[in-house]
Predict the structure.
Amino acid sequence: MKFEIKDTAVIVDQNKQVSSEFFKLFDLNYPKFHLNNIILIIDETQNSESDFVNFILKLTKSHQLHKKTFVVVAPQWSQSDISDDIICVPTLQEAFDLIEMDEMQRDLGF
């Protein structure tokens, strides 16, 4: 797992299948970047198994309380595979675009 700050977001790159180690590492590092927008790039082979999706759903909901965006980049997933509360896009550029739109809406008071 790699962490990189770029523009207005922290990019978390999970370059292999998610395991229990991923959950521990993410929880350990989350306090360092919880006030930033987060883009999670997952491995192309990662399926939308319930444990992983539930973890992401929990993070998304808590992250929104800080008025920040949490986006998953997963080209292999369709939005119908996961909860509507999880923002999922196929490319990194779309994740940045979505964060930019969310920040504009927050600035305007929406």
The mean pLDDT is 87.
